[in-house]
Amino acid sequence: xxxxxxxxxxxxxxxxxxxxxxxxxxxxxxxxxxxxxxxxxxxxxxxxxxxxxxxxxxxxxxxxxxxxxxxxxxxxxxxxxxxxxxxxxxxxxxxxxxxxxxxxxxxxxxxxxxxxxxxxxxxxxxxxxxxxxxxxxxxxxxxxxxxxxxxxxxxxxxxxxxxxxxxxxxxxxxxxxxxxxxxxxxxxxxxxxxxxxxxxxxxxxxxxxxxxxxxxxxxxxxxxxxxxxxxxxxxxxxxxxxxxxxxxxxxxxxxxxxxxxxxxxxxxxxxxxxxxxxxxxxxxxxxxxxxxxxxxxxxxxxxxxxxxxxxxxxxxxxxxxxxxxxxxxxxxxxxxxxxxxxxxxxxxxxxxxxxxxxxxxxxxxxxxxxxxxxxxxxxxxxxxxxxxxxxxxxxxxxxxxxxxxxxxxxxxxxxxxxxxxxxxxxxxxxxxxxxxxxxxxxxxxxxxxxxxxxxxxxxxxxxxxxxxxxxxxxxxxxxxxxxxxxxxxxxxxxxxxxxxxxxxxx
Length: 506
Known about the structure:
Blueprint: H1 2-6, H2 21-48, H3 56-73, H4 84-109, H5 115-126, H6 141-164, H7 183-186, H8 190-212, H9 219-230, H10 245-258, H11 262-269, H12 280-300, H13 306-319, H14 334-346, H15 359-377, E1 386-387, E2 390-391, H16 394-420, H17 425-436, E3 442-443, E4 449-450, H18 457-471, H19 475-505
Antiparallel strand pairs: 1-2, 3-4
Helix pairs in contact: 2-3, 2-4, 2-6, 4-5, 4-6, 4-19, 5-6, 5-18, 6-8, 6-9, 8-9, 8-10, 10-13, 12-13, 12-14, 13-14, 15-16, 16-17, 16-18, 17-18
């Protein structure tokens, strides 16, 4: 999928030397990952010219070589159509090779950074998790821009995968979009989907950047914050800028937008707004934000009106899984800490830039629970799950139940491993939730942020699979590994039989 979408060469020009589906999928993912990292490096090198320019040559040479080599090797990769499981493997491989290339860049350009820290930083960037272990304070603009823009690339690729590949239902309805709006209606073709989503990201970034320029921020800082907000990444150089009420209000609008379904955004952009008011998911999303803001302000209880915007900012940053954080209230309660953890877990709307369980799945899961309770009282009752007045197909209901099981299992498995390694129970649980939901900074019950720099290398690496799974909405990663495992067994089975036969004769 990635290869076919971003490659400039047609399938007829491709030459197939190795026809193994696994090899083709991994190779395509590798070429995309390395070339994408290379293009980001070239762009970062140009940005570095506006600063000291100390890393410019390295960025340009690395980026050019990576892009040219990948363009040449693409000629030797088969262009045949892949199955869904193979496409998921391609996407997952692309992410992994992007992470590895960035790891190399961080290791070579940042002093006193070991490979493990560089790998974790790179994984956090591309998965938009914003957990950081590297101090970029003394780094040049090029490497800072590279880290920040890699968030946008990861978010864009993941959202594109969700829109076009992740199974929703048989007719692709019931995705949490208003009324009868479907992804096929809005994005009927793959190329149109790429262009449309890219345009949404580009316009949103530009609007937010120039809006931030109204404040006292310079262009570079405004651009970095805009890139982090639109991608729900959360990386910033200085969190003190969030204390400015004008910056808070601008970012609140930006984060609410990124937490909204791209289908709804596209419909708004094209002037088709009649059916939007019937979107119960959108209404639920806004209601959760308002309710959380009210509770946070109530629990602050300091009589300061500025706390309203602060509470609003924290609530939106949490539910959108952006991860921007500011200092907690003076009278922060344990209830506030758990509320934010709950918001992070729920997450924003489906088909948005954010992570988490997402509101549409939660609503279906709650409806299933109600249906089962009704069936306990009335065994013969026929109760259909409906969203916005339309029935949700049973295959979609099963998908949500399975997703919920996997989602919960990953959280508790990750938390259990962290607890065994010596991390506190609450800290382990919040870390695993924030990693899987790609929400970033770990906020304790007292409101303070826990940095993963206090974790050991092994504890940090435990979070990486959760971050990757959360960014790709679980299915691509799990199906990829399951497919590789299955194909490996099929490959080895006849060879085992041959060896067994030879041994029997002897």
